[in-house]
Structures are given as structure tokens and as C-alpha cells.
């Protein structure tokens, strides 16, 4: 059964004010187009969960969509800090921002507990750190079997996860390659899943290479075909990271007026990702396109 | 040879790495250092990134720890959960590079807040992978400019444990390994039997007075205080021609 819809309809149906939401993808395949749609639809009081808030949550925070950020590394990767995140966390502009902070390992373990229906996940994490004193969802637990100990994290089960992949069939079986990050467990931990892809493909293509499947249709509620939906982050084999945009955002984000102007031009001023891409221009996208480098095909064998 | 402080820092970091190391790499100078090492004395060095790429062989300097050049040509790519679980936590990685806004005399690192956690003067990015990297590798390497602000006697917030309150303190927590070296623009510092940082070698042209002025406690100097070896021609050529031709992460000499 086809679950293909528009980003507009997926977000208006899937995301409500006050929801906790996880836009997945560790540096790779970040759902920027989804973030922009959430801003356009003026969703409010969201708990934004992401290991790396990255530019996309900086933009959502700047646009006034967030009440809380749950995260483990809030920087502009390779560039510096996230100015809008800091402005909200330090000065409450434009809204107060509650923080729930983890390490990467801790946050990923909490998602895993959520995806696995466990009351907590154990890890040798946080040891020697001051972080557990500031987060009630991190606790030391003693081993029931010897005198060892670990830390436990409470499960994270977002109301909505948005995950991206290179391709999926219309039912929502998705293939992802390159850095996998937390995409699978974010999808499995969440109540509602929006899947956005660079390409739609046949079910036959998915079944030809099942090891590459990151999530299956049973866990996916909406499928959106949204080429370049991760710009200015990247999609392995499709386009590289637009580093100029990351550097430029660092300057824009430090000035509230420039943030407003940027949101007006690049988010409110376009209807959808297609218009954003048209505005960006073919030249810029061509510069981001890698040469081809195909994996050697494998033989699954035709068994009778 | 004509070289700059930042080139010396990269090369000093590269020389900390051994051929059979598996290293958790960071972006910037650590990445350059690993690639210098791999192309000189440590060809078998295994580079692992917290994004889950195992055995990366980047064709150009990655822009972030999740860059596509780290995925293309890697030996394996693991979901993040597996990378932290099976590689870091289980002890398969023995060296890690970390940075931070503050490093104290026990090698504890703060990359979370300056000031009070609940009402910070400066909100920094936070741990990311750093806390567990610091906890689980045998040798933590830090590459950072030397300044009093960055080297307080104790950090405002422990994001990533060094020796905590001394070698015994770390051991009591059940952690092995610990900080190995801090490579600054003035010196290479190491840690004594109590887990306290001292100056092992001064860079050429750097003085004890400069180091004292830029360190937030009375730092000790090794009895046999040496001079940091200079970069050689091949190391400089790699940095300038192959690894950082656009001077993104180093200032370069002529």
C-alpha cells in the first residue's frame, strides 16, 4: 500500500504542537526540508531531540518552535557554535529553552531502550563526568551479579521521528548507505515515523538487497519523495555537504535580524523543497555532486 | 626548516601515534596528525570516527566527523549504537583525540559550560562522544592552544574525565588508561605518577616563563626538560601539499 504523500501533508498530519520530535541522521541525511516545513506550519512548544541539534534545530529554535532541546552535542560541526541555540539557552530569546543533556553514547542508548521496549539501557558511560548530577534520566546502577556498576538511561520514545534514506518503495521499505547514525533506532523508538527519500524505487529493488534495508514499511507512516531534502547536509552518493551554507549560517545566526530575513527568504518565502532547490540554483547543486563510485555487486543467489 | 607553531603541533601529535594503534579521530589538527602518521611511520594506523566509520581512509580532509569521505573507502560502517558499544566501550580503540574549552591539571576536560551549569556564562557544545572516549581509550591526546583561560587549576565542569582527582581517583571509578599528552603551541605536557600535568618538552623558541604565564597553576617542568623535535621535510610536505593545502587547519610556513 502506498504511503506516499507531500511533506506538507506528512507534517500537518504527523506533528502536533507540544510533540517530542526526533529529526534523525548523524551529520548525514539530516531532514532539513522537514525542519523547514515544521517552521512554515508554525508548530510550537516542541521538544526537539537529536544527538547533534545541528543547523536544523538552530533554525527551529530561532523560529520559535521549541520549548526543550534534548541533545548530546550542540555545535555547528566543523565550524563553531550554534548561536540561536545559545541565545535561547543563555538568554531565553526568542523562547526559554529547557535542556536535557546526554553524551552521544547515552542518548543513543536511551533511544535504543525506547526502540527495544526496555525500562532503561545500561552503559559504561558518564563515568567521572558531572553530567549525571544534572539529568534525572541518568542514574548509577549496581550490577546484580558482582561488584561492578554501570549507568542507566531512561528510554526515549519520541512522538514523531523523521528519518531520511537514499531510496524507498512506496510502502516505506528503505535502503540507506553511508553513515547510518541513529536512523534505525530513532525510527523504531518513535510513535509516528515520516520517511523522506531522495528516490522512490520498486519493492523489487528493495528485495534485491535486503541487507541494506534500514527500516521496513510496518514502522513507517508517511513516505515523502523529496530530492535534495537534506541540503545543506549531504546524502552519500547524491550530493556532498554544502560547507559554505554551514559557515554562512554561523554568521547569520549570531544576528536576530539576519535570522528573520533568512527565514523569510529561504523558509517562509518558498512553498516547499522544490522551490528552495530552484532558488538555490543548479550550479550550486552541481558543485556538490560527487563522481560515481559503485559498490561491487553481490550475488544473493536465485534459490529454488 | 621554516615551519609554524600549528605545523609543529600537528607533527608532535602525529608522533604520539604508533603503527598498531586504533585511534578515534577528531576533526582539524587531530585528523591531520593521524594522516601524517599514517603516511609516515604508522601505515597500519586504524582510523575510527564517532560517526561509526571504521578504518576510514579519507581522500581529503573531512569537514566534520560524519563527512562522506570518511564513509567512502572505509573498511566498515557501524550504526552509532554499535560503534560506541562494541568498539569504544569494549576496548577496541586505544587512542582518542579530544579538545575542550578548559583542561585542568589532572587532564579533566570541560566542553559543557563556563560558569554555573544552570546559569552558564557560556554554553559550550557538550560532550558528544568525548566523555566515553576519555573513559575508554588507553591514551587520550589533547591538541590545544596554551592560555591561562584554557588551563585552569580545575575545570568548571567535568565533561570528560582525565585523572579526575589523581591517578587513584580514576582507578577507583574503574577506568583504565587516561590522559597521555597535551600538545600546545608552547610545549608537550605529560602526566606524573600522581596524574598531574607537567611540561615534558618545550617547543623551540618557547620559554618556561611563557608557559608559566599561560597556565592557571604552578606547573612543574621535567627534570630532564627537553626540546620538542622539529617537523621534518616530509611531514611538512604532506601537510602543505596533500592534507591541508588550503590552510584550513594550519598556518603554514613558506
TrEMBL record, chain A:
One annotated GO molecular function: CoA-transferase activity
Keyword RNA-binding (UniProt): no
InterPro entries assigned: CoA_trans_fam_I, NagB/RpiA_transferase-like
Keywords assigned by UniProt, alphabetized: Transferase
Pfam families, per database record: CoA_trans (PF01144)
Origin: domain of life: Archaea
Record PANTHER family: ACETATE COA-TRANSFERASE YDIF (PTHR43293), CHOLESTEROL RING-CLEAVING HYDROLASE IPDB SUBUNIT (PTHR43293:SF3)
Name of the protein this chain belongs to: Coenzyme A transferase
Automatic annotation (TrEMBL), chain B:
Keyword tags: Transferase
Pfam families: CoA_trans (PF01144)
Keyword Transferase: yes
GO MF annotation: an example: CoA-transferase activity
Protein's name in the database: Coenzyme A transferase
Originating species: Halalkalicoccus paucihalophilus
Amino acid at each position: 500500500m502506498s504511503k506516499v504523500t507531500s511533506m506538507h501533508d506528512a507534517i500537518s498530519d504527523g506533528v502536533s504542537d507540544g510533540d517530542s520530535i526526533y529529526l534523525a541522521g548523524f551529520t548525514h541525511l539530516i531532514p532539513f526540508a522537514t525542519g523547514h516545513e515544521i517552521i512554515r506550519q508554525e508548530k510550537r512548544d516542541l521538544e526537539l531531540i537529536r544527538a547533534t541539534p545541528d543547523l536544523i534545530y538552530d533554525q527551529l529554535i530561532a523560529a520559535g518552535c521549541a520549548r526543550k532541546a534534548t541533545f548530546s552535542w550542540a555545535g555547528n560541526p566543523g565550524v563553531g557554535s550554534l548561536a540561536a541555540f545559545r541565545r535561547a539557552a543563555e538568554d531565553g530569546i526568542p523562547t526559554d529553552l529547557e535542556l536535557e543533556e546526554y553524551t552521544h553514547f547515552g542518548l543513543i542508548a536511551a533511544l535504543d531502550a525506547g526502540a527495544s521496549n526496555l525500562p532503561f539501557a545500561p552503559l559504561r558511560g558518564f563515568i567521572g563526568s558531572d553530567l549525571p548530577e544534572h539529568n534525572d534520566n541518568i542514574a548509577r546502577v549496581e550490577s546484580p551479579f558482582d561488584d561492578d556498576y554501570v549507568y542507566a538511561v531512561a528510554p526515549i520514545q519520541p512522538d514523531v521521528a523523521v528519518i531520511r534514506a537514499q531510496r524507498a518503495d512506496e510502502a516505506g521499505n528503505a535502503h540507506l548507505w553511508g553513515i547510518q547514525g541513529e536512523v534505525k533506532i530513532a525510527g523504531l523508538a518513535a510513535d509516528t515515523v515520516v520517511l523522506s527519500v531522495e528516490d522512490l524505487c520498486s519493492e523489487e529493488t528493495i528485495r534485491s538487497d535486503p541487507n541494506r534495508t534500514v527500516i521496513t514499511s510496518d514502522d513507517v507512516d508517511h513516505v515523502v519523495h523529496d530530492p535534495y531534502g537534506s541540503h545543506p547536509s549531504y546524502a552519500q552518493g547524491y550530493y556532498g555537504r554544502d560547507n559554505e551554507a554551514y559557515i554562512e549560517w554561523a554568521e547569520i545566526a549570531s544576528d536576530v535580524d539576519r535570522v528573520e530575513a533568512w527565514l523569510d527568504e529561504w523558509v517562509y518565502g518558498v512553498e516547499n523543497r522544490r522551490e528552495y532547490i530552484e532558488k538555490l540554483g543548479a550550479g550550486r547543486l552541481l558543485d556538490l555532486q560527487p563522481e560515481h563510485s559503485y559498490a561491487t555487486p553481490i550475488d544473493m543467489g536465485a534459490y529454488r | 626548516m621554516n615551519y609554524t607553531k600549528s605545523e609543529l603541533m600537528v607533527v608532535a601529535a602525529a608522533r604520539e601515534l604508533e603503527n598498531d594503534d586504533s585511534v578515534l579521530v577528531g576533526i582539524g589538527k587531530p585528523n591531520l596528525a593521524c594522516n601524517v602518521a599514517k603516511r609516515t611511520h604508522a601505515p597500519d594506523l586504524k582510523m575510527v570516527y564517532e560517526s561509526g566509520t571504521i578504518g576510514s581512509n579519507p581522500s581529503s580532509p573531512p569537514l566534520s566527523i560524519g563527512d562522506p569521505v570518511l564513509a567512502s573507502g572505509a573498511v566498515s560502517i557501524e550504526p552509532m549504537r554499535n560503534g560506541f558499544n562494541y568498539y569504544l566501550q569494549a576496548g577496541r580503540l586505544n587512542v582518542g583525540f579530544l579538545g575542550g574549552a578548559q583542561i585542568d591539571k589532572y587532564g579533566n576536560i570541560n566542553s559543557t559550560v563556563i560558569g554555573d551549569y544552570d546559569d552558564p556564562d557560556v554554553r559550550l557544545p557538550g560532550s558528544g562522544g568525548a566523555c566515553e572516549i576519555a573513559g575508554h581509550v588507553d591514551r587520550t591526546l589533547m591538541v590545544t592552544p596554551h592560555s591561562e583561560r584554557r588551563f585552569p587549576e580545575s575545570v568548571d565542569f567535568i565533561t570528560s574525565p582525565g585523572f579526575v582527582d589523581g591517578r587513584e581517583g580514576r582507578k577507583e571509578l574503574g577506568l583504565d588508561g587516561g590522559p597521555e599528552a597535551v600538545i600546545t603551541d608552547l610545549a608537550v605536557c605529560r602526566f606524573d605518577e600522581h596524574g598531574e600535568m607537567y611540561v615534558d618538552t618545550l617547543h623551540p623558541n618557547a620559554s618556561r616563563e611563557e608557559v608559566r604565564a599561560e597556565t592557571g597553576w604552578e606547573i612543574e617542568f621535567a627534570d630532564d626538560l627537553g626540546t620538542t623535535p622539529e617537523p621534518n621535510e616530509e611531514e611538512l610536505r604532506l601537510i602543505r601539499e596533500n592534507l591541508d593545502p588550503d590552510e584550513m587547519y594550519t598556518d603554514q610556513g613558506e
